[in-house]
Amino acid sequence: MDISFNIISRPMYRILIFCMIMATSCSSPEKLLNSNRGDRIFFGNKGGFTNMSTDYVLFENGSICRLKNDSVIRTGKVSREEVREIEVSLDAMNFMSVETDEPGNMTWYVSVVRGDSRNAVQWSDHDRNPQLKELYVRLMNLVKEQQ
Amino acid sequence: MNKYLVILLMVFPPLAASGQANPFKIKEKKNGTPVIDLPVIPRQPVSPGRTVAQSGTPQIRTLVQPVLSGHKERSTQIIRHRGRPVFIEKESRETKASPEDRFYMFLDETKALTGVENPGESFRITGISTDRLGITHIRTVQQFRGVDIYGSEATVHLDGARERFTGAFHRPDRNTKTTPSVSAATAVRKATEDVSAETVYRKLSQKEQEILDYSAPSTSLVLYSTGEDKYRLAWAVTIRPNFIEEWKYFIDAAGGEIIHKFNSTCSDGAVPAQAYDLNNILQTISVYLESGTYYLINISEHMFNGATDEGVIMTLDANNTSTTDLDYSYITSSNNAWPVRSAVSAHNHAALAYRYFWNTFGRNSINGRGGDIISLVNVAEDDGTSMENAFWNGKAVFYGNGGTSFYSLAGALDVAAHELGHGVVSNTANLEYYGQSGAINETYADIFGSMVDRDDWRIGEDITKTSYSPSGALRNMADPHNGGTSLSHPYWQPKSVSEMYTGSEDNGGVHINSGIGNHAYYLYATAVTKEKAEQVFYKALTDYLTMTSKFIDFRIAVVQAATDLYGASSTEVAKAEEAFTAVGIQQEEQVDKIQDYTVNAGQEYLLNYNTSSSFSGTLYRTSGTEDAPLTSTEMKGKVSVTDDGSLAVFVSTDSKLRGLSPDNASDPGEFMISGQQVWDNVAISKDGKRIAAISIYADTSIYLFDISGAVVRDTVFKLYNPTTSHYNTTAGGVLYADAVEFDITGQYLVYDSYNELTSSTGEDIGYWDIGIINVWDNNENDWGDGTISKLYGSLPEDISIGNPVFSKNSPWIIAFDYIDAANEQYAILAADLNAGLDNLITMNNTLGYPSFSKNDDRIAFTKADGLSQSIYTIGLGADKISPAGTESGYIQDARWPVYFATGERALSLPPVADFTVDIKTGNAPLRVKFFDLSANQPSSWAWTFEGGTPASSTEQNPVISYNTPGTFRVSLAASNNQGSNTSTRNGYIIVSAASAVEETGQDAIMVYPNPVSDILHIISETEYSARLFDLNGRLVHSGTNDQIINMTRMGKGVYLLELTAGGKTTRLKIVRE
């Protein structure tokens, strides 16, 4: 499934500089989308009245990049152990085989790229998808740790 | 060979039987799930709308409510609380009677529902008023033998074609005293003595008396409720012990003791408040006072039901939490001051939106049934930052406080109406939030937003920052381009189909393509007035649109709605057609796909079950003067017969499956199908190849057996209740099925099932309803996917339906039993599932178990006849769902009629070819997806596409590219084993000037291929520069004279290529596939 990213419209070099200043291993948004290096998890929400989206990506090495409309608000890094816990969660729920495609007025999504495999799920009712909600909350908690 | 001898290897654990009483049918079922050695096919839910046109699949329209119990515009709607009506709505009769008389006429006409025998003696009118919309409200208080019942206010509202009652009905015992023994003066003395002990008591000065318009305590004789239908005669005394306070006393009129008293100075309940909203406007809102605390809860709207406390408008504080960690609280005040302006805005706007739906459409709240409206403010993003959005989650509206691009979203009235509009859509057509249906969903939300915030056609203008959208509005229905030039501007929308987004972003462009429907509405409303347009579009939404409606369905629905309201040749219809044509939603060729099967030409008989002990036989075959017994085996229920009458199956009272040949009365040849004593009901397909059976266990299952081959195959389908929720939710509640019948194709079963749900008050509710399940696929010669559609989306309280049966020749016509348990009312109804209509055939006095005659011109049914039962028949009209004539008795002492005929006929039909597309007009290169809509299950397709690439296809739903301009013909030949049918449409695809070639003077730049999967070629004879942007306006490539752009690593979707040559810039839409 294609994922919508509201990538910044500023010149690429400013993104690179920003990421470098933050001492992360984030690449340019273009490379984020198209790079085949390493596993990564995209997550966020989209839709609503304004159709704005909030998008994050967690890399295998623990780097987190946030992409929101025209800005990169912040980046950060979590421990390898925390990344592994996420990976264990994904395996436990057999995420790569989950086929949840339930968009709504506001939609939440998680997309996982593992090597040549990719699986994306989206939902709009947390109550109907408690496992996905729990995964999403754990990913967002990693983001909140960086604040 | 007795191919029907089936050995069923099932082991059922010994379990106690459990009885389950219910108002419709009483079935003794065993608990638990039997251990079954069968391959269970997991239910494969079909995601509607994604592949559209399921060829041959019946358009099974889930009906709203049964015609007798509240089907819109045709009958009475009742809401009960604890068995008594608290809301009644019905059609008005044409009358010139005064409002007072109409009040009494209303109660007279509904006395069967209310139990009020003499409305004239039971109600006293206390006030009559007419509001600005012309609705007359007649307020009354109920009386018992001339004494007012305290707190019994009830109102009848006269609203044109509809009349409504709100309130409650009281039923004091006939022995309730109405003559006081204690005088009013004594009651005043007692109240005065008591209040003097409660507070400061002094005589008011003359001036104070004038100000308060009070000179002495007032008294009135009332009946005061002390519990369930218990009343005491009392003096209601209102007394002012001092200038500030007012007290109310209820003094028992027999013994003089105080029943109840309270200080009514600051009485609990609805109170007005004034507070500034986000726009710095002082608003008057309704709040709720309880025990000294004010809550942001509005109980003042029409929908509030004091008996159930439902129908509130409530605004809560999310305390800057998100939906993933929601921690909300009531918004309260100790002094009726409301400093949280976002809450004031949200609260006020919710009330305004409610009143819009109520006053404009008579729609009682978002769910149409007076349901609560909940708003939450101060909602944060999931990451804790401020949310620049608002949304509806199926239960409530969530408002963020904005940020860099938007102000606090609660500040806009159209935002509130937009989000609540989504709720209305969810509770009506429930348009799926994807693709064209999702765009229509968004269009309706914007329509409601612009109609509530009615002064302009801009959406979100009160909360959109110009830094985000230079126009200051998020969207503009009058000009969807909204100051932008392309998808690179997030505030830009297409204004016609030629600009439609066809990618997968934004759930297939729901927020993008809504501009097309928005503009159609704008054009229509401008032509016919907003007042007419909103009525037409609302009717289209509630009566005609369905979950997967496309743009063409939108046009058809609106035109039909306008036709219904204004007539086929009206200006309103013409303008609707013009509006949709103007945005590129063209008239689609209408193909009549409804076909009847050939009538069975054989001799017709009626099977019937004897109930008289005077005769030894049980099952009889009757025709004319013939009345032949076929067996004396006792049966649990009615038989099921193949189409040619060669085999009937039934369950005997010892729970075994048996069969016989009803076409041979002299030797029916009864035999055992299954000797295991585990069955409750059974049906056989019309072709005799499959059997469906229900066990004696409450196992939520239907067992299917394929007996067409040398080896019997079997499987089990699990029953579920699909809800009408936004998200294809399935709900539980189904316990077991009972009556079951195959349709003529053998692919679908119609069945009734017993359900139990727990209400919001914790009460268990049991009821029967009807579903249709796909059990077989004739094309695949294999089991179906088990998808279930329900006959009705919801049933009112105390209503059950069951014993469904298909007509003999029209696949979408069924008849069934209806029961209103509260009123012990039975009826037989019929429904046309294709047209979405239902109708009353006849009232009855017991379960009828209807059966259609071979010509579908008559229905036979069971009727109680004194102490026995008889079979009656009634004629049917040409539509097969209307009665013709009156019922007449046919067979005495008999029940469970089943018509059959002995001829042979084809049980499938040749296809009727039909198709549609996602887009019919546009610029080259134009990528068009075709959808097969052919009826009657074609198994092969042969498409030809004039001007298309490829020029032909054998796929069911092919995708074709049109790379050159022109007007092109499309042809589809759909075939199955019954024949073939071709649909050809000339001028169907219209492709405008190729965007792949742009001329700049004598030079040209050519770009190809489009769509592109890897390398995009650019050929130019002059120098040029190129820039490529993605959907979000991000520059992904730039260069000069590149000749190629490598898009291999770019994501799939739509891009914008900007070419500048010779001082002229051209922009092309490029699709990366």
Outline the fold blueprint.
The complex is a heterodimer of chains A (147) and B (1073).
Chain A: H1 12-21, H2 29-34, E1 40-47, E2 52-59, E3 63-67, E4 75-77, H3 80-92, E5 106-114, E6 117-123, H4 130-145
Antiparallel strand pairs in A: 1-2, 1-5, 2-3, 3-4, 5-6
Chain B: E1 10-11, E2 17-20, E3 27-30, E4 35-36, E5 77-81, E6 84-91, H1 99-109, H2 111-114, H3 119-122, E7 123-130, E8 136-144, E9 147-159, E10 162-166, H4 184-198, H5 206-212, E11 218-227, E12 230-239, E13 247-252, E14 258-263, E15 269-276, E16 282-290, E17 293-295, E18 297-298, E19 313-321, E20 329-330, E21 332-333, H6 341-361, E22 373-379, E23 390-392, E24 397-399, H7 413-426, H8 435-452, E25 458-459, E26 475-476, H9 505-509, H10 514-528, H11 530-544, H12 551-566, H13 571-582, E27 604-610, E28 619-623, E29 626-631, E30 640-641, E31 648-651, E32 657-660, E33 671-674, E34 679-684, E35 690-695, E36 701-706, E37 713-718, E38 721-722, E39 730-731, E40 734-742, E41 748-758, E42 764-774, E43 776-777, E44 782-783, E45 788-790, E46 799-806, E47 813-820, E48 825-832, E49 837-844, E50 851-852, E51 858-865, E52 868-876, E53 883-891, E54 894-901, E55 915-917, E56 921-923, E57 926-932, E58 940-945, E59 952-953, E60 959-962, E61 966-976, E62 979-992, E63 997-1000, E64 1003-1008, E65 1015-1020, E66 1025-1029, E67 1035-1040, ...
Parallel strand pairs in B: 9-11, 19-22, 22-24, 56-62
Antiparallel strand pairs in B: 1-4, 2-3, 5-6, 6-10, 7-8, 8-9, 9-10, 11-12, 12-13, 13-14, 15-16, 16-17, 17-21, 18-19, 19-20, 23-24, 25-26, 27-28, 27-54, 28-29, 30-31, 31-32, 32-33, 34-35, 35-36, 36-37, 38-39, 40-41, 41-42, 42-45, 43-44, 46-47, 47-48, 48-49, 50-51, 51-52, 52-53, 55-57, 57-60, 58-59, ...
Helix pairs in contact in B: 6-7, 7-8, 8-10, 8-11, 10-11, 10-13, 11-12, 12-13
